[in-house]
Design goal:
The protein is of the alpha/beta class. About 45% of the residues lie in helices and about 10% in strands. The chain has 29 helices and 20 strands. Helix 5 runs antiparallel to helix 6, helix 13 crosses helix 15 and helix 24 packs parallel to helix 25. Bound molecules: the ligand CN1c2c(nc(N)[nH]c2=O)NC[C@@H]1CNc1ccc(C(=O)N[C@@H](CCC(=O)N[C@@H](CCC(=O)N[C@@H](CCC(=O)O)C(=O)O)C(=O)O)C(=O)O)cc1, 2-amino-4-mercapto-butyric acid (HCS) and zinc ion. Zinc ion binds next to loops.
Length: about 775
């Protein structure tokens, strides 16, 4: 095919769409089902209605091919586990008795059985359920969900393409099942898995699929030769099947690197590649392998993970180059639109001019359609769209919110000395011990206490004007009183105020920072039915007023014990927001760090002796390719130190991390130079304590002894055992006792019981320590 005919055939598509509906109908229906308020049939019918309306909207917007199978009640990796029959033994009976109930049992656990582990989906804030596999895993095909959803879309008269997690990515995301030796590599199960995919592909073909998409984002990470060989084998086998639809192998989130030649040569009919950000390197790499003669290329030129309008002219230039490299070029967003909110036009509180800079899922779909149209019919067919796009880009580039001279001058003046504590750790540690007078194995929590329905309703009432500011603040003060009094009674050593005033640990701060936009409806799925509204870091960032001092000081006024100030760190602020794409992340991080540094100074001036700066996203934002990591860690650790190092030696700086494995960032953790770090560790039986010890980590640490992701209350004996394990790695003078993470998703009864047990465990283990 010539470049001209490749252009004429250009079509628009996306790989996935937000699942929850305009008013979070799916969240409400699923939670209603869990609470017994919504029946299974009603839940299924809500879900089917949402899928229908999404497909209709996509088709009405001009999309030529809609995705199917991307919908999920909880998580698409869990759906894949069901599709390949890899149900863990402990869940088998529940799944056999009731497929839907069993599905949720795998996701959330029950009193009797633990759920699957949950972890980050690549470097996003979406979490998937980790497949558990072992040498004895027997795969069996269950294509029912995929076939049913394809059938629904085809019945609407649409051209539809099922989207599946590819076999290589599925296996690379899996872990050895409990009891299986840690050395077991799930990828060794590829030969057993391929016949199951073959069966699903045949079923989809029989149901009317012309194309099926197999997502292989794991191939954008550094892969060993053996893993690349497995990818080659996988697509040689699937490509060689006779009874199958055409195959589109998709990658996203970064460049394919060494996997590109492997996939380019594979006997499949199409590849979908990301051409945004670091993945733009795919363009030269594709030319270097001689393009994709005879294949369909789906070009992800619209950033599926950020919220800024596309530079349509720039994308058209990329697409123009690609036309010479494939038989047919289609246009798409770079990845599933699951990671962006639904519709920017719903954000009525955002100034209309600024709203025009924003593209959420609906607007990105329109951009994809415009680009495909321009490719197929020439730019003359989209003159108005291109002119409007140029004007909006110019309005953003020239806006005063993107350049605040005072913020820029301050950031430019930062010196290395601003990012260092004034005294070495040993001296600060002595000063802090003298000031705080804590026992050995001091107890603390990570910050949040239960975010009850009552608190959320109070905030909704405040917004709706049903509750005045005074009434709301009284409600928050009452909550803080309860949290402080509970901690005093329980005997916790370093208290927290409980964060009742925070809708979210990132959004709360962004709402108070200049240069950041908060959304009203911009929900994005974080895990299961839990959603976040990531703020938009749109301009230069500064802090007009203290953000937390009022509540920390109020809490401190209620007790003689130290109350920890509680802030979200600069790296996590960036990671869980939509960041500006017109300057390096390092520059934005430095601006946020300076704003937070002022908050730290104000907390200290108000008498706060312990300040925690949370960085749960430090590990998650680590670039997917090792070659990019050093540069990231340099600016990330500098931003944390810039936030925290302006304090007196006797002010104790804590940090906290969770939701990740930390083994490969221990040096970066050390580089933060925080006095104390609390880390998630309960499920891994204090593995991180051993990793810190192996590194020679010199400061204090609190590996968690209470898994707050589970409703299970750990007994005092169990917590004490974990502490004794911790003591084998970290000496008593440097070991803290705390839960894995904050308690906002837990209820009060379990929180009370678990923290009482935690304090009892600390007392028991203290009494076992040799007298000094
Ligand atoms: C630590 N985690 C976080 C991540 N990312 C963040 N940005 N923040 C995090 O804390 N990533 C990793 C993990 C993910 N974990 C979670 C845990 C819990 C949630 C969660 O509970 N989300 C809530 C929404 C939270 C929120 O924004 N609350 C607001 C608004 C609440 C609301 O919906 N109000 C209703 C009315 C309420 C009523 O009447 O009951 C409304 O406005 O209509 C608030 O409290 O004010 C969720 O519901 O999903 C997310 C990630
Ligand atoms: N301080 C926060 C940290 C969560 S990672 C909390 O306790 O919820
Ligand atoms: Zn945490």
């Amino acid at each position: 095919m010539t470049a001209k005919s490749a252009a004429a055939a250009a079509r628009a598509t996306v790989y996935g769409y937000p699942r929850q509906g305009r008013n979070r109908e799916l969240k409400k229906a699923v939670e209603g089902y869990w609470q017994g308020r919504v029946g299974a049939d009603a839940l299924r019918s809500t879900a089917a209605g949402l899928r229908r309306s999404t497909w209709r909207q996509l088709a009405d917007a001009g999309l030529h091919e809609v995705p199917t199978g991307d919908f999920s009640y909880y998580d698409h990796v869990l759906d894949t586990t069901v599709m390949v029959g890899a149900i863990p033994k402990r869940h088998r009976a529940a799944v056999d008795a009731d497929a839907l109930g069993g599905y949720f049992a795998m996701a959330r656990g029950t009193q009797e059985v633990a759920p699957l582990e949950m972890t980050k989906w690549f470097d996003t804030n979406y979490h998937y359920l980790v497949p558990e596999l072992g040498p004895g895993t027997v795969f069996t095909a269950d294509s029912a969900k995929q076939v049913a959803e394809l059938t629904e879309a085809l019945a609407l008269g649409l051209s539809a393409r099922p989207v599946l997690v590819g076999p290589v990515t599925y296996l690379l995301l899996a872990k050895p099942a409990p009891g299986v030796p840690a050395g077991f590599e799930p990828l060794t199960l590829l030969e057993a898995l391929l016949p199951v995919y073959a069966e699903v592909l045949a079923d989809l073909r029989a149901a009317g699929a012309e194309w099926v998409q197999l997502d292989e984002p794991a191939l954008v990470q550094d892969r060993t030769p053996a893993e690349l060989q497995a990818a080659e084998r996988c697509y040689r086998v699937l490509g060689g099947l006779t009874d199958r639809p055409k195959l589109l192998v998709a990658s996203y989130f970064d460049r394919l690197g060494d996997a590109l030649p492997v996939l380019a040569k594979a006997p499949v009919e199409g590849l979908a590649l990301d051409f945004t950000g670091a993945a733009a390197a795919n363009l030269d790499a594709l030319a270097a392998v001689g393009g994709l003669p005879g294949k369909r290329l789906v070009a992800g030129v619209v950033d599926g993970r950020n919220v800024w309008i596309n530079d349509l002219s720039k994308s058209l230039s990329t697409l123009g180059t690609l036309l010479g490299l494939a038989d047919r070029v289609d246009v798409a967003a770079s990845c599933s639109l699951l990671h962006v909110p639904l519709d920017a036009s719903a954000e009525r509180d955002v100034e209309p001019q600024i709203r025009r800079w924003l593209a959420f899922a609906r607007q990105k779909t329109a951009e994809v359609v415009t680009l495909a149209e321009a490719l197929a019919r020439g730019t003359g067919s989209v003159t108005a769209e291109l002119a409007a796009n140029r004007a909006d880009l110019a309005s953003r580039a020239g806006s005063p919110i993107t350049r605040d001279p005072a913020v820029r001058a301050r950031a430019a003046a930062v010196t290395d000395a601003d990012t260092r504590r004034s005294q070495p750790y040993a001296e600060r540690s002595a000063a802090q011990r003298a000031r705080l007078g804590l026992p050995l194995l001091p107890t603390t929590t990570i910050g949040s206490f239960p975010q009850t329905g009552g608190l959320r309703r109070a905030r909704a009432d405040l917004r709706a004007g049903r509750l005045g500011t005074g009434g709301y603040e009284e409600r928050i003060e009452a909550e803080i009183q309860e949290v402080i009094s509970f901690q005093e009674t329980t005997g916790i050593d370093v208290l927290v105020h409980g964060e009742p005033e925070r809708n979210d640990m990132v959004q709360y701060f962004a709402e108070q920072l200049t240069g950041c936009l908060a959304t009203r409806h911009g929900w994005v799925q974080s895990y299961g039915t839990r959603y976040v509204r990531p703020p938009i870091l749109a301009g230069d960032v500064s802090r007009p007023e203290p953000m937390t001092v009022r509540w920390t000081s109020y809490a401190q006024s209620l007790t003689e014990r130290p109350v920890k100030g509680m802030l979200t760190g600069p790296v996590t602020m960036l990671a869980w927001s939509f960041v500006r794409d017109d300057q390096p992340l390092a520059d934005t991080a430095r601006q946020v760090a300076l704003a937070l540094r002022d908050e730290v100074a104000d907390l200290e001036a108000a008498g706060t002796a312990v300040i925690q700066v949370d960085e749960p996203a430090l590990r998650e934002t680590l670039p997917l390719r090792a070659a990019d990591r050093a540069a990231y860690l340099a600016w990330a650790t500098e931003a944390f130190r810039l936030t925290t190092t302006g304090v007196r030696p006797d002010t104790q700086i804590h940090t906290h991390m969770c939701y990740a494995e930390f083994g490969d960032i221990v040096q970066a953790i050390d580089d933060l130079d925080a006095d104390v770090i609390s880390l998630e560790a309960a499920r891994s039986h204090m593995q991180v304590a051993r990793e810190l010890a192996a590194h020679g980590y010199p400061r204090e640490a609190g590996p968690g002894v209470y898994d707050i992701h589970s409703p299970r209350v750990p007994g005092a004996d169990e917590a004490a055992d974990l502490l004794r394990t911790g003591l084998k790695a970290i000496p008593a003078e440097r070991l803290w006792v705390n839960p894995d993470c904050g308690l906002k998703t837990r209820g009060w009864p379990e929180t009370r019981a678990a923290l009482e047990n935690l304090v009892a465990a600390a007392r028991t283990v203290r009494s076992e320590l040799p007298a000094s």
